[in-house]
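Issue: ligand-bound run for ribavirin triphosphate - logging full I/O for the record.

Environment: standard queue, default settings, no custom constraints.

Inputs:
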Amino acid sequence: MATNRTFTMIKPDAFGAGNAGAILKMIEESGFKLVAMKVTRLSAEAAGQFYAVHKERPFYGDLCAYMSSGPIIAAILEKENAVADFRTLIGATNPANAAEGTIRKIFAKSLEENAVHGSDSDENAAIEGSFFFSDLEKVGV
Ligand code: RTP
Ligand code: MG
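Outputs:
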């Protein structure tokens, strides 16, 4: 399996609850290498741009408000089969449906405030990583 990259955010609920370190520990212990990472805060406009794919969905306004409600961590991760393996590690969107031991099962508060983001394809991982990081900020590992 080829090594590739995915993109993640530790969302405002998890960051605000002081769970960033524990989540990053789970990510590293699952074999993901950090390629880039920063603490930042999205404006409502930037959150809207990032989640533009959901523009027509009824939860879009709430999602943009939530994602701009506090600091986040944005990070690019590298591993074999990174996109699919990271989606497995974080678990289902709704923590009520997430498998035991997944990040969302452990840390998510609700369907809306669900602790972490994970890219859903190689293509989106590249787009999302470049939304937050310049090429200079992406370390080759
Ligand atoms: P993400 O993009 O954040 O990794 O989450 P995902 O792929 O598992 O889920 P997605 O369908 O892309 O939804 C993006 C985020 O929107 C919020 N959401 N709210 N109220 C609702 O029905 C609802 N559905 C989704 C969640 O924060 C979800 O992660
Ligand atoms: Mg998604």
